Amino acid sequence: MIKLIVGLGNPGAEYAGTRHNAGFWFVDALAQDAGAALRAESRFHGLAARARVAGADVWLLEPQTFMNRSGLSVVSLARFYKILPDEILVVHDELDLPPGTIKLKRGGGSGGHNGLKDISAHLSTPDYWRLRIGIGHPRTQLPAGNPQVVDFVLKPPRKEEQEAIDQAMNRAQEIIALTIKGDMEKAMQHLHSQGSR
Do 164 and 57 contact (CB within 8 A), yes or no? Predict the structure, then answer.
């Protein structure tokens, strides 16, 4: 079962609408649906809430350490509540998936994502669950401009990209109950059979 859902992003109003904050968007939506208020928790270096999601009590967390140091926040809460790595779901933006695509997987590399890299280092394992929200890659989304990845992820999606991302996150919310219960096979089957739209 999943006991902790972590959304990755950067704190501050200037980052709120940027692609790199897709994880925050998802956790904000979960908190809103659950009627939970994320509050600053200094001991966890983030915004946290205990929420009733799909009939289960889970922790929602948004690290406020900036992306590169997300692991400090995740490990602080996980250790305090004795939550194991395979009971953690990290929601993050994914360059290797186009907007409108969303994938669930366990373990694997960081794919150059500094938030995942730091979480894996702090947990001493990459063996936690990831919900990967496709944002596309600058070489495919903006091939003419040839922007750097860092510039791309720290800018807001274009209107059509945002709509595709929102639809993908809505589909992910449909399988969150299965995910929390630990029925990952069924959750992945449902999510991945939808394909990208």
Answer: no
| Strand, coil or helix: 127 | coil
The answer on whether 66 is annotated among ligand-binding residues is yes
Residue 68 labelled as part of a binding site: yes
Q: Report the share of the chain in percent with pLDDT over 90.
A: 87
C-alpha angle 137-141-144 in degrees, rounded to nearest 5: 115
Q: How many domains does the chain have?
A: 1
Q: Are strands 129-134 and 102-106 parallel, antiparallel or unpaired?
A: antiparallel
Q: Is 190 a catalytic residue?
A: no
User: Whole-angstrom Cα distance, residue 116 to residue 106?
Assistant: 12
Find out whether 129 and 86 touch, Cβ atoms under 8 Å: yes
Count other C-beta atoms under 10 Å from residue 99's C-beta.
24
Radius of gyration of the chain (CA): 15
Q: What is the mean pLDDT of the chain?
A: 93
Provide the CATH number for the domain around residue 168.
3.40.50.1470
- Provide the residue range defining the domain that includes 169: 4-193
The mean pLDDT of 60-87, rounded to a whole number, is 98
Mean per-residue pLDDT for 60-79? 97
Query: Is 21 within any annotated ligand binding site?
Result: no
Tens digit of each residue's pLDDT (9 = 90 or more) over 8-46: 999 999 999 999 999 999 999 999 999 999 999 999 999
Q: Beta strands 39-41 and 4-7: pairing type? A: unpaired
Which helix (DSSP H) or strand (DSSP E) does residue 4 occupy? strand 4-7
